Amino acid sequence: MARIWTWWSSGEETLTPFLQLCLKSWRVKHPEWQVVVLDSANLWQYLTADDLPSTFTQIQRASLQSDLVRLAILAKYGGCYVDMSSLATQPTAEMAWARIGEGACLVGFRAPHFIPDFVSAWFLAAPQQEPIVVEWSKMFNHVMEGRVDDRDIHHHSFFEGVDLSDYLRYGALAPKPGQAASLWVEYLVVNVVLKAVLDKDPSLKQRFWSSSCLVLESDPNLSPTLWSESQVHLIPEDVAFPENEKLKMQNLLKQDPDFATRLMDLPMVKFFNSGSPYAHLSSEELLASPSVLGCLIRKALGYLVDASQSPAQWPQLPALKDLPNWPTSSTSSSPFAWTSQGRWTRPEDLAARDLWPGASPRRRARAPHTSRWFRSRWNPSCATCWKLRAGR
């Protein structure tokens, strides 16, 4: 049975309702696939210590851990890896796997409008022991060995002779305080390693560009190996890209049938920041909402046909407990609760919920969030957030 892999370090039971629905969409659209949620507890059932850097468990940034895991798991088992904050509106993994069956060595999305030859890592499909992925994982582990973060990683000897000017220009490797480009530092190191791997091995580079199936994010009509219409990458409200104004995540909470219809025709939608702008909404609220986001979720779970219908015209939605493989209670199954002050916390911590607004500037600076988001949200999969909550 083919497998879809994803990662959430604290476990599936700690997912917010929005992320639970994202995960459910992959199971609904791929009933013949096994969807595996990897976490810090079950990871070693699939991987060994040799598959990851020796300092893996000491890495605090969840996105860096997930990058290491996605390559190691695809190299060893093959299949499709998706970020947890991805909503499947079509059987995307099956479409990608069909290309693998036709001989593609890798399926993913390109973003040449951002950086030439850039390949996003939030959706990847590859066969077991694919040489490109094996080498990619091996060298990523190599440059991360003995490290617990990726700051200044471009000074590693592995990158000698590799042109990283595009990444340096965007601040992906050497961010300067106060520059918006520094936002990308947490996401691009895995891509830098791939570029170095391909530049150093001409045979792998030739295989990559001749046999991989890379869909353009910006203009799918330009892709010679198009397998489906390009996805839409939804950006958070505080990242300013005027050309993508309508794709900001808060806009999905508005009603816009035309926009909803266009998005529902795409194979998947990727959200930034683990969907944090929607973390305060329950599963029931998300499913029943007439907003663009509600339309997308209902389409992903197989309910909605026409986004222009009024709520009174919607087909009767089944209770969440009646959905296949759904927890008995979508809210009580999580050890987190949504407080009146707008953040996720464990029930036993509710009495101490004033801890976050009163945190010192020094402690805020240690969190992997902007100051505004730190005051109103926290990421239960982030080790730094947990340490700050514990007062360390």
From TrEMBL:
**GO biological process per UniProt:** mannosyl-inositol phosphorylceramide biosynthetic process
Q: Write the signal peptide boundaries.
A: none
Instruction: Tell me one Pfam family matched here.
Output: Caps_synth
Could you tell me which InterPro entries the record lists for this protein? AfumC-like_glycosyl_Trfase (IPR008441), Glycosyltransferase_domain (IPR051706), Nucleotide-diphossugar_trans (IPR029044)
PANTHER family, alphabetized: MANNOSYL PHOSPHORYLINOSITOL CERAMIDE SYNTHASE, MANNOSYL PHOSPHORYLINOSITOL CERAMIDE SYNTHASE SUR1
Query: Which is a Gene Ontology cellular component entry for this protein?
Result: membrane
MF terms (GO), sorted A to Z: mannosyltransferase activity
Q: Which organism is it from?
A: Effrenium voratum
Descriptive protein name: Uncharacterized protein
